[in-house]
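Morning. Coffee machine broken again, so started the prediction first thing and wrote up yesterday's gels while waiting. Chain of 291 residues, entered below exactly as on the submission form.
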Amino acid sequence: MIRIKILPMLLILLLAACGEGVQKRDKPVVTVSILPQKYFVEKIAGDRFDINVLVPPGAEPETYEPTPRQMQEVANSLVYFRIGYIEFERTFLRNLRTAGNGPLVVNTADGMDLIAADIVDHGDHVHLYGVDPHIWLTAPGVKIQAGNMLEALVEADPDNAPFYTENYNSFAGELDWLHAELTDKFSDLGRRTFIVFHPALGYFARDYDLTQISIEEEGKNPTVANMRKVVDIARQEGISNVFIQMEFERENARAVARELGGDVIELRPLSANWSANMREMADKIYEVLKE
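Came back before lunch.
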């Protein structure tokens, strides 16, 4: 697991300037980037920590910028669990300097089979470019992420290691069950291609042998040419509906759906109740594919 100890110099200045800007906590603080990670930490640690979430509901992780107060909260945390490849995390960490008494920073993507646009092998190390950051939308991947969380929590709080380990084992079993359930659900479908506005479901699609077609292009609003390409693919595949999520604009998705005579269907990849939401998303995708 990739971990570093940090103490941001910028935060020292902010703390001196802002004084009591940080909320006082009754429990040790753990910081996560997005809401689904809060669910994972609670599955392992129960209510032993106050969990600070950087990206608020309705915000877009790919374009989010932490506030100065949030940066102070991270400085006061016992552990910061980063997703690993969300842009603000990398920008945020570039502003931090290594030190011995800051929070433990954990890259929860460590050990995962990542989806990347380009992989360059230099022999003794590998560089990944254009990594799909949506690693929380895969049950097998979350099992790896939860394992990284377990290791860090045991290191940070060794007295409660048996409690954390027992909870992790229970959660790992739930993830295995969910993966088996969804594998069976999608096993007998004829149509296996679906359309999304924002390409958040790459790992989900890989897990269940599906194909995700995205209207958005590399994080940018689509061109007319790409929208026409998506419409052509949809007609070939017999697809009429388009999946969207609340954090992104909808007009282009609606335009494609109108062209196809279908509807836009909302998914919630950043839902706080991760397990229930994975099943809900799977049901919606399944219903569209089986039509």
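The CA atoms of residues 58 and 247 lie 5 Å apart. Going to sketch it on the whiteboard this afternoon.
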